[in-house]
UniProtKB/TrEMBL annotation:
<dbReference type="InterPro" id="IPR036873">
    <property type="entry name" value="Rhodanese-like_dom_sf"/>
</dbReference>
<dbReference type="InterPro" id="IPR025714">
    <property type="entry name" value="Methyltranfer_dom"/>
</dbReference>
<dbReference type="InterPro" id="IPR026669">
    <property type="entry name" value="Arsenite_MeTrfase-like"/>
</dbReference>
<dbReference type="Pfam" id="PF13847">
    <property type="entry name" value="Methyltransf_31"/>
</dbReference>
<dbReference type="Pfam" id="PF00581">
    <property type="entry name" value="Rhodanese"/>
</dbReference>
<comment type="similarity">
    <text>Belongs to the methyltransferase superfamily. Arsenite methyltransferase family.</text>
</comment>
<feature type="domain" description="Rhodanese">
    <location>
        <begin position="337"/>
        <end position="437"/>
    </location>
</feature>
<dbReference type="GO" id="GO:0030791">
    <property type="term" value="F:arsenite methyltransferase activity"/>
</dbReference>
<keyword id="KW-0949">S-adenosyl-L-methionine</keyword>
<keyword id="KW-0808">Transferase</keyword>
<protein>
    <recommendedName>
        <fullName>Arsenite methyltransferase</fullName>
        <ecNumber>2.1.1.137</ecNumber>
    </recommendedName>
</protein>
<dbReference type="InterPro" id="IPR001763">
    <property type="entry name" value="Rhodanese-like_dom"/>
</dbReference>
<dbReference type="InterPro" id="IPR029063">
    <property type="entry name" value="SAM-dependent_MTases_sf"/>
</dbReference>
Length: 442
């Protein structure tokens, strides 16, 4: 059926999508996308969609089943020529399939960072990474809005990937994200984007249809618009290529195991009944692979690409109490209390410069990954006191991660509580300089 006059356009557009603010559109997308992460998708459906867009059986077997959720419109890793030691960022990383495939190519000396707006999807991807034994800094998943500045250092990434995501952003979001891609790429870096592109101008009844928007249709822009946005973002027109992959988008609307035919990208948003579009999707939009190269010569890898290393880990939920230096000193000097107290220095490189005597060194940068072992060592210790230089960042964060871990174990499984040394080692050294029973230097 031609889509020039979709028979149910009035009902489908009744959501009032055309008047929906950008923040609300992102909110609807986040809700629908998070639902997919929590509820999953039929394995046969996910596999058929992945294979339709170029993933091989070998690739699918190499990743956890939950890493691909029928959300792709291409296979960007296959075309990205990722090399050993490169840093790769995936925008809208979902369950993690493209990051896991990229990480394999980048090897142990490379980095693969997935960004996604959905906390549920980030949690799923981190769970999948754990199944594969992958962890930061080699593989990291970070929650981030793609319509805002990305938490990535400038000129730090060799290759940026994205798979069926940019079409979902409001127009101004597309503008922002493409500029951000150019900003984070190294000179000589490249981006490979698989996305849905409009074959011709979309009629108003499709553009105003929220379900069609969620289904990666209504937000699609024309090929020439895409080229223009890439040029405005800083990419030279001679270094941009858009290729129609000629894939059949009707694969999204098949009925598979445990899967109601809904859309390519997400389930229907709350309050809207999922349904197959009443127009020919292939007539209006197509799956494109988009290549762009940033001008300049390739540079060496910077020490890090993530703006904040702790973004690769869960946000702290608890708020451990602070103990003053005087209170901690009293515990250290009390023979009985000291046996039931552990003091943890979470600084990585400056422990030797002076530390609380008897403190244990567990670096904050790897602490979250080490929590199971840390818990086993200290779960019967009543007071576990953390500190860093001033106890404003690493110390409270590590204490919070430990307390969150304790809370998840349930009552009766331990007798431990996390605390923070107020003022950190800086204040401790100032207060107790010369008191060798309180200060040690390696």
């Amino acid at each position: 059926m031609s889509s020039s006059d979709p028979k149910n356009s009035t009902e489908r557009a009744a959501s009032g999508f055309s008047n929906t603010p950008t923040a609300d559109i992102i909110g609807v997308l986040n809700a629908a996308y998070s639902a997919r992460a929590r509820e999953g998708v039929g394995a046969s459906y996910a596999k058929s969609v992945a294979e339709a867009f170029g993933y091989t059986e070998e690739q699918l077997k190499s990743v956890p089943e939950e890493a691909h959720l029928g959300l792709s419109c291409g296979n960007p890793v296959a075309a990205a020529s990722i090399k050993e030691g490169e840093t790769v960022v995936d925008l809208g990383s979902g369950g993690g399939i493209d990051i896991f495939l990229a990480a394999e190519k980048a090897g142990p000396s490379g980095k693969a960072i997935g960004l996604d707006m959905s906390p549920d999807m980030i949690a799923l991807a981190r769970k999948n990474a754990s199944k594969k034994g992958l962890k930061p800094p080699h593989v990291a998943f970070v929650q981030a809005l793609l319509t805002e500045p990305l938490p990535i250092e400038p000129n730090s990434v060799d290759c940026v990937l994205s798979n069926c995501v940019i079409n979902l952003l409001p127009f101004e979001g597309k503008v922002i994200l493409l500029k951000e891609i150019h900003r984070i790429l190294k000179p000589g870096g490249r981006t490979v984007i698989d996305d849905i592109v409009a074959r011709k101008p979309l009629p108003e009844n499709i553009k105003k249809d929220l379900l069609a928007y969620i289904s990666c249709i209504s937000g699609a822009i024309l090929e020439e618009q895409y080229k223009s946005l890439l040029a405005d973002a800083g990419f030279s027109t001679s270094d941009v290529l858009l290729v129609d992959t000629k894939k059949d988008l009707s694969v999204y609307y098949q009925n598979g195991e445990n899967q109601v035919a809904t859309s390519c990208c997400t389930p229907a948003p709350p309050g809207i009944t999922p349904s197959k579009p009443d127009f020919d999707v292939n007539e209006w939009v197509a799956s494109f692979q988009i290549y762009a190269l940033k001008d300049g010569s390739t540079t060496e890898n910077p020490p890090t690409a993530l703006l904040r290393w702790w973004d690769a880990y869960p946000t702290v939920e608890s708020s451990p109490s602070f103990l003053t230096a005087e209170e901690v000193a009293a515990l250290v000097r009390d023979p009985t209390a000291s046996k039931d107290t552990a003091i943890i220095d979470v600084r990585r490189n400056d422990h030797a410069g002076g530390h609380v005597r008897g403190s244990h060194n567990w670096a904050a940068q790897t602490f979250h990954d080490d929590l199971p072992a840390f818990y086993e060592q200290f779960k019967e210790t009543s007071r576990v006191i953390f500190y860093c230089q001033s106890s404003n960042g690493r110390g409270p964060r590590s204490a919070g991660w430990y307390q969150d871990y304790l809370d998840a174990q349930g009552e009766g499984s331990h007798k431990s509580t996390a605390y923070v040394l107020k003022g950190g080692i800086k204040n401790w050294l100032k207060m107790f300089e010369g008191q060798e029973d309180l200060i040690d230097r390696d």
